[in-house]
Design a protein that fits this description.
Pdz3 Domain; seven-stranded antiparallel beta sheet; elongated; disordered N terminus; Pept_M50_Zn; membrane; Zinc metalloprotease; Peptidase_M50; transmembrane helix
């Protein structure tokens, strides 16, 4: 077993983004419970960001409510008097109901209090997606712009995709945004890919079980890559040259006499010469030149190449605020639809739980290693709608479980007993904690695998 080298600056930035994003989500979610409870004159005993077993990092009591910051970053909570929740305050429930307690309120008020957090998360997601659309618009690289086609890894080649293929359509639907191809393959369970190869249209059949292979091999975000030449954009001051030097606009075509055309070939080749001096042949204008340079211990020569978006161009669509509103709703719905589709695939066995589940480690790792506000708000919007969906599931210990029992009470006119609610809450907490422990174990296993 080996543990990969860790870039601590990148980890720190990811961690800060994760903490900020989930602090926003948790605080607003709990406010969705807090304010309706106060409006209906329930006493709120605690309002916490993160959980605080044994001790709190900070706390302050204002009126009847203790506000605090816990040390376990898995969520947060509000403790409402007279409610069976994660605090499992059985002593309070043994006392006669008081006017300020949750259990003494009408069922419709209790339903609003319980669903308030979910409603806030849905509204937040919609607002975030509207804001992203309005501020940043939509920028992407069209698949048709990839003049050199794609570089297919071993998994893509196993179904018949070849280097140089140009992706035309999936199940007959034309592909526009290159970056969405693999997600569409998984979520739409595509059966056929159409590619342009040597001037002819070729149908590539996608076999049953291929989605599971994509997830198992962690290829969801890396099976097809743009194929592009190695063109120098800038050279770092730390680059070491013993003969000549690289210049902006140089196109690399050989390393130690071994020719290559595209970046993926160069990337593979240079890893064989880590921490050594190599000879680079470059095309400079209409002439060739030879440069001797050092490849450092990180397999880097010290230059930045032009990336596909710069070489092939992108399309940007700007939105006015009025145009952004319906587009924001659409993006929110599409995000929820993709998540639900993923869950269906999980429960139907089309993907393995061990390949798709993750804990806070996986979630935190989705944030980039550099601070990117567009990416930050996009992920926050995605997690907000996911949090809403997960919380409304009819599982005891979640908002949806409490809401379900309240709806049953409203329909039947019979309120579940406090003892039943205690056992249901306990069962739900055991289920959720077990799932969290399993997901955390999977993440540690992946780190050390």
């Amino acid at each position: 077993m080996t543990l990969l080298a860790i870039d601590w600056s990148s980890v720190g930035i990811k961690t800060l983004q994760f903490i900020l994003s989930f602090s926003i989500l948790v605080v607003l979610h709990e406010m969705g419970h807090f304010f309706p409870a106060r409006w209906f004159k329930c006493r709120v005993e605690k309002f916490y960001l993160f959980f605080n077993p044994w001790f709190s990092l900070w706390k302050k009591k204002i009126g009847d409510t203790e506000y605090g910051l816990g040390w376990v970053p898995f969520g947060g909570y509000v403790k409402i008097s007279g409610m069976v929740d994660e605090s499992m305050d059985k002593e309070q429930m043994k006392q006669p109901p008081q006017p300020w307690e949750f259990r003494s309120k009408p069922a419709w008020q209790r339903l609003i209090i319980m669903t308030g957090g979910v409603i806030v998360n849905v509204i937040l997601a919609i607002v975030i997606f509207i804001g992203i659309t309005w501020v940043w618009g939509e920028e992407y690289m069209p698949a048709k712009n990839l003049k050199y086609g794609v570089y297919a890894d071993s998994l893509a080649k196993s179904i018949g995709v070849r280097d140089g293929d140009m992706i035309l359509s999936l199940d007959g639907k034309p592909v526009d945004n290159f970056a969405t191809i693999e997600a569409e393959m998984v979520l739409k369970e595509v059966k056929q890919m159409q590619v342009m190869r040597d001037g002819q249209t070729v149908n590539v059949q996608i076999p049953d079980g291929f989605i599971k292979k994509m997830m198992k091999n962690k290829q969801f975000a890396g099976m097809l890559y743009p194929r592009y030449p190695v063109i120098v954009d800038s050279v770092a001051k730390t680059a070491v040259f013993t003969q000549g030097e690289l210049k902006k606009g140089d196109t690399l075509i050989a390393l130690n006499g071994t020719g290559f055309t595209y970046y993926h070939e160069f990337d593979k080749l240079k890893k064989s010469y880590v921490d050594s001096i190599v000879s680079l042949t470059v095309l400079r204008g209409h002439d060739t030149a030879v440069v001797r340079a050092r490849i450092n211990e990180k397999a880097s020569i010290g230059f930045r190449q032009k990336f596909p978006a710069e070489l092939f161009g992108t399309v940007t669509k700007d939105y006015t605020f009025l145009e952004a509103v319906p587009e924001g709703f659409k993006r929110c719905w599409e995000t929820l639809d993709r998540y639900v589709t993923g869950l269906k695939q999980l429960f139907t066995g089309k993907v393995n739980a061990s390949d798709s589940l993750g804990s806070v480690i996986s979630i935190g790792n989705t944030f980039p290693g550099v601070w990117d506000w567009e990416r930050f708000w996009t992920l926050t919007g995605i997690f907000s709608i996911i949090l809403a969906f997960m919380n409304i599931l009819p599982i005891p210990a979640l908002d949806g479980g409490h809401a379900l029992f309240t709806l049953i009470e409203m329909i039947t006119g019979r309120k579940p007993g406090d003892k039943f609610m205690e056992y249901a809450q306990m069962a739900g907490m055991i289920l959720l904690l077990g799932l969290m422990a399993y997901a955390l174990g999977l993440d540690f296993w992946r780190l050390f695998r």
